[in-house]
Amino acid sequence: MSDLKSPAPDAGQTEAAPTAATAAANAPSAAATAGRSLLPQSTLLRHLVVLLLGAVAAVVILEITDPFTNSQLATLSYYAIAAGGLTVLTGMNGQISLGHGALMAVGAYTTALLLQEPDGALPLPLILLISVVTATAVGALVGVAAARLHGPYLAGATLALAVGLPGLAIYFHDLLGGEQGLRVRAPRAPESFDSFIGFVSGANASSTKWLAYVGAICLLISYFLLANLVRSRIGRTWRAIRDQDVAAELAGINLGTWRVLAFVVSAAAAGLAGAVLALVVRLAAPSGFTLVLSLSLLTAIVIGGLGSLLGALLGSALLVFLPPWVTDRGIDLGLNNTEAAQLAPFVYGVVLIVAMIFAPAGFVGTIRLRWMTGKAKRAAASRAAADASGG
C-alpha cells in the first residue's frame, strides 16, 4: 500500500518542476482528453474546433477594442508566432536558440523587398509564403551547421547569428537600405474585408484593423499547424530526443536530422512573424532585430511555460501589454515620461524573477503540474479507500 501514497513535494521535486511541467504540457492526446470533454476525441478535429473558437474570439476582441488596442494585438500576433516556433525548438526539442530575431529579420526584409512596387506587388498570401520559405532556407543552413551543437554551444552559435545577420543590411545598403532600413508599403485591404467589417460592426475598416486581422489570421493558422505537429509522431520523436537523447539514438533515431527539422520548423514560424512585423511596423531596419528581440522571445516562453503553445501566447501577451500598463501607472503616480518608461523594464524583470521563484515551470506549466499532482493524489486516495473497504 505504501507505493500508492503520494508524498509531499520536496526540494528535489521543486527543482525538477520545469522538466515535469514540460512533460505535462506535452502529454499524449489520449491522456489529455480522458474523461468527459466537449471536444472531439480526434486531435485534428479538436484543433479545428479550437481554431474556429479562436477565430470567433479574435473577431469579437478586434471589434470591441479601440485602434490603439488593435495595434497592440497586431504586435502580439508576431511576437506569439515567433514564440510558438521557439517553443517547438526549445520546449519540444531542448535546443536553446538566441538567434530568432535574425530569422525574423529575414522574413521582414523579404516582405519589404517584395512590397517595394505596390502596383506590381504579388498577392499578400504569396508574399507571406515566400518570406516563410526564405527564412526556412536560412534556418535549414543554420540548423545543418549547428546540428552537432547542443546546449550552450548552440546558444553561442545562434547568438553570433543574432548579432551578425542584421548587419548585412548595412553592408548591402543599396539593396536593404542600410541603417535606415526599408519602408514597407502594406497592401490595402480587399473590398471583401471592407464588406465583412461593415456586416459585423457597421463601421469602416481602417488600415490598423486590417493589419490586426492579418496578424490574427497568421497566428491562428500557425498555432493550428504547430499544435497538430507537436501531437504527431514528429512531436513525440522531438520529445524523446529532448528527454533521453542517448536512448533515442540507440532506438535508431538520427539526432542531427531531427534537430535540424526542429530548427527548420522554428525558422519558418520566425519568418512568418518577421513578415507580419514588417507589415505592422511598416519598416524593416536593423534596429528592430537586435539581440534584445531574441532574448525577449526566450523570456516569453520561459514565463509562459516551456513546451506549451498557450504558454508562448501568454508570455507574449505579458511582453506586449505589461510595459505600456506599467508606464501609464508610473505617469499616474507622478513620474515623468522618461522615468515611467524606465520603470517598465524594471517591473518586467521583477515579474520574471518572481515567476522563476514561485512558478519555475512557467505559468501554464506550473498550473498543469499542480493539476496533475492533485489528480494523482486523488486517484491514489481513491484506490487506497477502495482497497481498505475491500479488505
Radius of gyration: 23 Å
Secondary-structure element sequence?
HHHHHHHHHHEHHHHHEHHHH
Distance between the termini: 12 Å
Number of E-state strands: 2
What can be said about the biggest beta sheet? 2 strands, antiparallel
Overall 3D form? globular
Structural class: mainly alpha
Strand percentage, roughly? under 5%
> Roughly what percent helix?
over 70%
Number of helices: 19
**Mean of residue pLDDT values:** 83
Strands of the widest sheet, in order across it, are 1-2
Uncertain regions: pLDDT < 50 for 5+ in a row?
1-35
Which keywords apply here?
391 residues; mainly alpha; two-stranded antiparallel sheet; 74% helix; globular; disordered N terminus
Tell me what you see in this structure.
By secondary structure, this protein is mainly alpha-helical. It has helices spanning 11-15, 17-25, 29-32, 43-64, 67-92, 100-114, 124-145, 152-164, 168-171, 173-176, 191-200, 207-230, 233-243, 245-250, 255-281, 291-304, 309-332, 337-358, 362-390, and strands spanning 182-183, 283-284. It has a two-stranded antiparallel sheet with strand order 1-2. Helix 5 crosses helix 17 and helix 6 packs across helix 15 (255-281). The longest helix has 29 residues, at 362-390. It is globular, with a radius of gyration of 23 Å. Mean pLDDT is 83; it is low at 1-35.
